[in-house]
Amino acid sequence: MPVTQTQAILNGERLALTRILSQIENNTPEGNQILEELFPHTGNAHLIGITGAPGTGKSTLVNHLAFQYRHPPEGNHPPTVAVVAIDPSSPFSGGALLGDRVRMQDLVGDSGVFVRSMASRGSLGGLASTTAGLVQVFDAAGFEIILIETVGAGQAEVDIARLAHTTVVVEAPGLGDEIQTIKAGILEIADILVVNKGDKPGADNAIRALRNMLSLSQPEKHTVMHHGDLMELEGIPKENQPTDQLWVPPILTTIATTGEGVSSLIEEIASHRQYLMETGEWELREQTRLKNEVDNLLQAALLSRLNSSISPKVYDQVLDQVISRQVSPRRAANELIQGAGL
Amino acid sequence: MINTQANIRVLIAKAGLDGHDRGAKVVARALRDAGMEVIYTGLRQTPEMITEAALQEDVQVVGLSILSGAHMTLVPKVLKLLREQGMNNVRLFLGGIIPDDDKPELTKLGVDGIYGPGTSTQLIIEDIRKACQ
């Protein structure tokens, strides 16, 4: 009996794996059918998101992370590692330059590692719309650690937190003052904070700013130095969470170019996983993740149905009315939806 | 708009001991602007590294940039390794300093296009599009 593509992927055949990743990225019916068959085999991998501003050293850090996972201290099992690295697509040409591999040269020749680059293809949340699908394939294929490197993220690209079990936010010295650290967005999603380029001037300031940010939201009673005196502060408990089980994001320093600090990062990722398991948070995150994926697919399906049910002619007519300022954009959108009968 | 259409995926690689990557970057940029997804490997890649990347990225096209004179050694190796991995349909394009005398042999081996200094990027784009139809 010929081996089906699904079986080939479950057997870890790399050619079948790479082909199916493309099918899913291109949203083909065959790809989606195989994803269907693979889905029951997912749910075993630890999904780790690596995010942060462009140029903070995410790819270099991923290179060292994957390398050290594959070369653990004597006697430990080296987990298999998949890397999904996303870079932006051009909003004009739709093309992309995917350059994350340039930093991942240490992983070459290791059959326990698979690195796949993705273009964001118009998605804005730091991932591509099919990233979750690719991650599921790697999960089903038996990869134990899946590192997901987002597009260089600014402040609002937080989709990764809904996909990954553990989100690592990478900062670098010199990217902003303390006000940046208390804004909403990317720092809020961090399970682990990393100040990379720890040998560069300003690294201490970056760590201090992050530590201050965390102390502002510290859930337990704690003391701080205030004008040279110790001052006791009441904590701000998070809703629905007993204070003895809280995860306070650790702040680590790394030098990704040499790999310094990466083994501590691996330890922290492991303790975060343990925390998730012990508190039941792992299950919760899995539920949120799957719900989020259903919601995303629902939105995409509705959008494509809407697009196909509005005639281009009507669309152009309505658009002309907006451009000549006869109809407001909001009214135009409402009319188009009503006309489409949805 | 979210785009899930198939884009042409191209691996641009600098093979061997050769640090001159201006040409490779110019081509990578031009292909990006032509709507392709270009994976750039960086410098000093062995044939094994190039073919492993081609497999993991499932590219339709590999563009090799060689200015070191080692093309008659590197190109056959890359083609052999691609076939061994089952990547029989990958098209191989070559850029850099390739003497005219070597071109017939390379074409016979299975190289789809050879481009020297001064080639218009438009020509390369058109050839790649044709090869991927």
Strand element count of chain A:
10
Taking all Cα atoms into account, the compactness measure Rg of chain A is: 23 Å
CATH architectural arrangement of the largest domain in chain A: 3-Layer(aba) Sandwich
Q: What class, by secondary structure content of chain B?
A: alpha/beta
Number of domains of chain A: 2
Number of strands of chain B: 5
What sequence of helices (H) and strands (E) makes up the elements of chain B? EHEHEHEHEH
Largest sheet of chain A: 7 strands, parallel
> CATH class of the largest domain in chain A, anyone?
Alpha Beta
Share of helix among residues of chain A? Answer: 40-55%
Name of the level-1 CATH class of one domain in chain B: Alpha Beta
Low-confidence stretches of chain B: none
Main sheet summary of chain B: 5 strands, parallel
Percentage of residues in DSSP E strands of chain A: 15-25%
The spatial strand order of the largest sheet of chain A comes to 4-2-5-1-6-7-10
Strands side by side in the biggest sheet of chain B: 2-1-3-4-5
Between the first and last Cα atoms of chain B, what is the distance in angstroms? 24 Å
By CATH's scheme, which homologous superfamily of the largest domain in chain A applies? P-loop containing nucleotide triphosphate hydrolases
Helical residue percent band of chain B? 40-55%
Uncertain segments of chain A are none
